[in-house]
């Protein structure tokens, strides 16, 4: 990145994330209480990308994560809530950030995930049977991080994902569902991790994805929608995985993300001058990392974890 | 949070929100208490309703209610009471959805309760109409609509009509166009009544989408649908064979190492092989699977056993454009005067299938001859033998100055061996495409700056040229190439945000223009070094350097190439190059390759001896855009025990070197130049020498 329209307020964003813990009683925090596990993943990964994970008390985080562990083997969004695959992946990712995957009962956890695979290869999110390709990605990503991919029928899992592919090259939640950048990320990510990207028409999907970039540089999630910082992640990661990321204007996108910063109080919002939150702060910073913004750690587009964390998992310490 | 303005709260709002937070927290802890203690009384349920009405996203609340329903239904036999239990859930979902109709939990709860079978689906379309009117793009509602339609066994024709209504209501409804494409392809696939003629259906669809794109040419919704229609129109269902190596009607000489002297026939193709083995390559117009000895017959007198066919693909895919098998002379065979015919036939039995599931069904055949010849070791090893290959301009002489007979591209025009479409199908294609092209030319006259109009016109013209070339290869001369190149050049200026996309498309068209006919290709064919004076044909180099290409293609024309210079372009990928099985010398210097994973296709080239990847960007970037397109431990496409550790040292971690190890370990290079890449330091050169035992020259110096 040579030309920058503004600067990333690293210190402010770190302060913003750390301050979220103190605002536990705000309406916003209470409303998001049920998905605190996702919040932890967003916040902590952002800190790691900014090189500031050391400012967090790791033992405290790990002990809280383990309080969300459920006897079924899955993790809940917060203490007292039910387990769900959405929060199980976040829990595993948080533990991976701290190089603490060894605290897990890996057999039990992988049994929980493989137990959610259905006859047709799809995955349910929990015992209540909602099916979605998001859950396919989560199951595959999670098991791969734990070196347990052989616990599921990957061939069927891939077959189901392919059945959700649309005529515009994208993917939906279920067969026939409309293409959506978030859903595309999940399906492309799952196919990437299983070595099956050849099922994708890269040029067709790549063009659909690069057309998500609108005039002001931001990316939207579907045609004729407004741009939003979170799609910087979904669209960019997908484009990187299929080697078509050069089809968008990276500098313009970086400019859009930087324009969405709250330069006074830290944090990043969906669009310029909107209210910030930890979700968009993470996606903004992760997007900038994909754009090779100087000073940020690199993040893996499929596993959504810093590259050094992934290298440790797959190549050991050497 | 989406769409909330960033502003400090006023004090009175602050107080209100603190109160609201307290209320929410209170309700949530009561819910969790009841949930953990399995309390399903009316009062307890009331608390969960209040909570979910305030925040439908609290998934544990919906789970609790499901448990409560199951618990309460167990003891209930009175149909009236059952109905009231179910109705209460439906009511709650409706309120929750009115608050947030993107709530996954609420939509699923509705599906769950209705799937119990105690309530009819009759009300559901009314509800959906209400939500779809409020937000016609809500994909939850569309998904739910498909679910309800399936449960109620609504005919697909009716749902198709619904999309027509939605589209006529607002052309800019991508969701409706999408659903239309889903339903329509189902109807076409199962040849439902009224949908048996693809031609008629597509004609009507073109009419509909023209209205949309002409009403608002800047809206993307209709354009994507138009692209889909175009693909439906021009993509032949059945795959076709478009080229092969050896080519039809050629005479090929396989040279094996020996001390005998030889003379060459000027019109033949030479292939050097120490073992008397030579490849047979088939190239299809789309990736196919299932090529095997049961559907490809090869008549060659020494070929007694079934041939093993292999797809040329860098991934696990069983599909590929290009398939290869090897034919072999028996070891004792050294009769250099004898010429053997080879005949290849395919399309007579099933098994070669495209991605869309269509069978290869054009019976075709091609034939060539082979003979075996023994040549001296030095000559046989050709250009990569005893001297370092020099890619400098001075090493090359243009072929045009030499008798054309010497050129191995002699029979290029005969590459086309596929049978034609049925004439009526071709007629229909021409009749459909011609007015489309005219229409979009007209649109562009009216609205000069319509980017998507230009892009569509370019795609139409490319498709038209491709159809005509496939069908009447000899007579048809591509007439639209210059117009297409101009359209892409315009687009780069008109829409700079996506200029790299147009640049890639431009490169593909340009490359095809340069090599798709013998005359233009010969301008890029050069003899290498002194070999022009000797009669060694396999040192013809195709030089496509300094053309500013950002993407390469048209590999069906290049199967014969053994020496290729692509230096000084803007390439970052060589996807598809794995089809060029004869390649022995390749120059990719001064391009934009940024990782070894981007060079993965080269791992499939068994004959590659000389490689130049100097002055690229390997080691510069923190992201690797081809990591998941190649074999790697991250995508579970290499064995865990790949022994990457073997090459690790204290100052060279596995994570930093595994890609180089993976890439070079499979190659048999004699000459490598990779100077001018960030990764290339002394340590790295030591690793390379270890990985490449046959390496003689590294970065222009002899390896000792
Ligand atoms: Zn967003």
Structural commentary:
The complex is a heterodimer of chains A (318) and B (704). Chain A has a two-stranded antiparallel sheet. Chain A has one domain: Alpha/alpha barrel (Glycosyltransferase), CATH 1.50.10. Chain A is built from 14 helices and 2 strands. Helix content of chain A is 47%, strand content 1%. Chain A is globular and about 50 Å long. Chain A has helices at residues 10-20, 27-31, 36-49, 58-67, 85-97, 106-114, 133-145, 154-163, 181-193, 202-210, 230-241, 250-259, 278-290, 307-315, and strands at 268-269, 276-277. Chain B has 4 domains: 11-170, Protein prenylyltransferase (Serine Threonine Protein Phosphatase 5, Tetratricopeptide repeat), CATH 1.25.40.120; 244-377, Immunoglobulin-like (Sandwich), CATH 2.60.40; 423-507, Alpha Horseshoe (Serine Threonine Protein Phosphatase 5, Tetratricopeptide repeat); 523-702, Leucine-rich repeat, LRR (right-handed beta-alpha superhelix) (Alpha-Beta Horseshoe), CATH 3.80.10.10. In chain B, 40% of the residues lie in helices and 13% in strands. Chain B is built from 19 helices and 19 strands. Chain B has helices spanning 11-36, 42-54, 59-75, 79-99, 104-115, 124-134, 139-151, 156-169, 174-189, 198-215, 220-234, 377-380, 423-446, 451-471, 481-494, 499-515, 518-522, 654-665, 682-691; strands spanning 241-245, 251-257, 269-272, 277-289, 296-299, 310-311, 320-328, 339-346, 353-354, 364-375, 396-398, 525-528, 540-543, 563-565, 585-587, 610-612, 671-673, 697-698, 701-702. In chain B, helix 2 (42-54) runs antiparallel to helix 3 (59-75), helix 10 (198-215) runs antiparallel to helix 11 and helix 14 (451-471) runs antiparallel to helix 15. Chain B starts with 10 loop residues before the first helix and ends with a strand. The chains are: A mainly alpha (318), B alpha/beta (704). At the A-B interface, helix 2, helix 10, strand 2, helix 13 and helix 14 of A face helix 1, helix 3, helix 5, helix 7 and helix 9 of B. The complex binds zinc ion (ZN).
């Amino acid at each position: 990145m040579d030309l920058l329209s503004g600067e990333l307020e690293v210190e402010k964003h770190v302060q913003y994330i750390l301050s979220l813990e103190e605002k536990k009683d705000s309406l916003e925090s209470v409303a998001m209480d049920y998905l605190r596990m996702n919040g932890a993943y967003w916040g902590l990964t952002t800190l790691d990308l900014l090189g500031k994970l050391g400012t967090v008390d790791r033992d405290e985080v790990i002990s809280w994560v383990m309080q969300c562990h459920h006897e079924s083997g899955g993790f809940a969004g917060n203490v007292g809530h039910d387990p769900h695959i959405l929060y199980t992946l976040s829990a595993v990712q948080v533990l991976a950030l701290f190089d603490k995957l060894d605290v897990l009962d890996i057999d039990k956890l992988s049994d929980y995930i493989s137990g959610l695979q259905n006859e047709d290869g799809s995955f349910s999110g929990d015992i209540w049977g909602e099916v979605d390709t998001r859950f396919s990605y989560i199951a595959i990503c999670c098991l791969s991080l734990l070196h347990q991919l052989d616990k599921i029928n990957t061939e069927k899992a891939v077959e189901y994902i392919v059945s959700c592919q649309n005529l515009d090259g994208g993917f939906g939640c279920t067969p026939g569902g409309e293409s959506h950048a978030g859903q595309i990320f999940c399906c492309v990510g799952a196919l990437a991790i299983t070595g099956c990207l050849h099922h994708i028409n890269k040029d067709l999907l790549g063009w659909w994805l690069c057309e998500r970039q609108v005039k002001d540089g931001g990316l939207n999630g579907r045609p004729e929608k407004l741009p939003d910082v979170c799609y910087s992640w979904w669209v960019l990661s997908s484009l990187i995985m299929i080697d078509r990321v050069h089809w968008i204007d990276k500098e313009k996108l970086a400019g859009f993300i930087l324009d969405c910063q709250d330069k006074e109080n830290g944090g990043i919002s969906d669009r310029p001058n909107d209210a910030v939150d930890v979700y968009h702060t993470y996606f903004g910073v992760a997007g900038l990392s994909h754009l090779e913004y100087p000073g940020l750690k690199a993040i893996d587009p499929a596993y959504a974890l810093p590259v050094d964390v992934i290298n440790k998992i797959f190549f050991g310490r050497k | 949070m989406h769409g909330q303005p960033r502003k400090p709260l006023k004090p009175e709002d602050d107080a209100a929100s603190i109160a609201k937070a307290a209320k929410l927290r209170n309700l949530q802890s009561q819910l969790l208490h009841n949930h953990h203690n399995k309390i399903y009384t009316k009062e307890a349920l009331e608390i969960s309703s209040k909570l979910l009405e305030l925040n439908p996203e609290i998934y544990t609340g919906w789970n609790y209610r499901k448990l409560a329903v199951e618990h309460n239904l167990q003891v209930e036999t009175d149909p009236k009471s059952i109905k009231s239990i179910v109705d209460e859930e439906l009511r709650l979902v409706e309120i929750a959805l009115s608050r947030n109709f993107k709530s996954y939990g609420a939509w699923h709860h509705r599906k769950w309760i209705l799937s119990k079978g105690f309530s009819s689906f009759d009300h559901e379309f009314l509800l959906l109409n209400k939500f779809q009117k409020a937000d016609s793009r809500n994909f939850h509602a569309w998904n739910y609509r498909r679910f309800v339609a399936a449960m109620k066994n609504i005919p697909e024709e009716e749902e198709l009509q619904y999309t027509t209504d939605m589209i006529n209501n607002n052309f800019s409804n991508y969701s409706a166009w999408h659903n239309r494409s889903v339903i329509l392809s189902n109807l076409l696939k199962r040849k439902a009544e009224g949908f048996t003629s693809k031609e008629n259906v597509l004609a009507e669809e073109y009419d509909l989408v023209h209205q949309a794109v002409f009403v608002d040419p800047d809206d993307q919704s209709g354009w994507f649908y138009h692209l889909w229609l175009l693909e439906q129109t021009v993509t032949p269902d059945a795959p076709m064979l478009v080229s092969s190596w050896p080519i039809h009607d050629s005479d090929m000489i396989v040279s094996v190492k020996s001390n005998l002297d030889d003379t060459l026939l000027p019109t033949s193709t030479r292939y050097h092989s120490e073992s008397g083995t030579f490849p047979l390559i088939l190239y299809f117009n789309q990736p196919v699977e299932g090529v095997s000895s049961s559907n490809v017959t090869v008549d060659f007198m020494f070929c007694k056993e079934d041939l093993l066919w292999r797809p040329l693909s860098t991934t696990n895919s069983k599909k590929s454009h290009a398939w290869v098998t090897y034919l072999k002379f028996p070891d004792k065979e050294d009769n250099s005067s004898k010429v053997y015919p080879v005949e290849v036939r395919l399309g007579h039995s099933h098994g070669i299938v495209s991605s869309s599931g269509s069978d290869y069904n054009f019976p075709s055949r091609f034939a060539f001859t082979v003979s075996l010849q023994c040549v001296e070791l030095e000559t046989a090893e050709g250009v990569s033998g005893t001297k370092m290959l020099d890619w400098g301009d001075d090493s090359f002489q243009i072929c045009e100055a030499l008798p054309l007979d010497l050129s191995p591209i002699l029979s290029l025009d005969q590459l086309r061996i596929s049978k034609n479409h049925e004439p009526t199908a071709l007629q229909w294609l021409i009749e459909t495409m011609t007015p489309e092209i005219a229409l979009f030319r007209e649109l562009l006259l009216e609205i000069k700056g319509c980017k998507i109009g230009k892009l569509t016109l370019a795609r139409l013209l490319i498709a038209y040229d491709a159809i005509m070339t496939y069908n009447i290869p000899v007579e048809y001369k591509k007439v639209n190439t210059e117009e297409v190149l101009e359209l892409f050049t315009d687009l780069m200026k008109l829409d700079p945000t996506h200029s790299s996309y147009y640049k890639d498309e431009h490169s593909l068209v340009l490359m095809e223009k340069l090599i798709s006919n013998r005359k233009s290709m010969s301008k890029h064919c050069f003899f290498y070094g002194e070999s022009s004076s000797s009669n060694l044909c396999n040192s013809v180099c195709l030089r496509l350097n300094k053309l500013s290409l950002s993407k390469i293609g048209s590999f069906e024309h290049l199967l014969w190439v053994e020496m290729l210079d692509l230096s000084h372009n803007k390439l970052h990928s060589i996807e598809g190059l794995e089809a060029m099985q004869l390649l022995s010398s390749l120059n990719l210097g001064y391009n934009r390759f940024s990782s070894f994973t981007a060079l993965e296709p080269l791992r499939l080239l068994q004959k590659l001896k000389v490689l130049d990847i100097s002055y690229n960007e390997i080691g510069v970037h923190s992201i690797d855009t081809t990591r998941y397109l190649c074999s790697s431990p991250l995508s579970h496409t290499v064995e865990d025990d790949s022994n990457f550790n073997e090459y690790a040292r204290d100052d060279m971690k596995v994570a930093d070197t595994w890609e180089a190890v993976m890439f070079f370990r499979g190659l048999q290079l004699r000459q490598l130049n990779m100077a001018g890449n960030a990764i290339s330091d002394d340590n790295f050169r030591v690793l390379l020498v270890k990985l490449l035992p046959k390496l003689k020259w590294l970065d222009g110096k002899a390896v000792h």
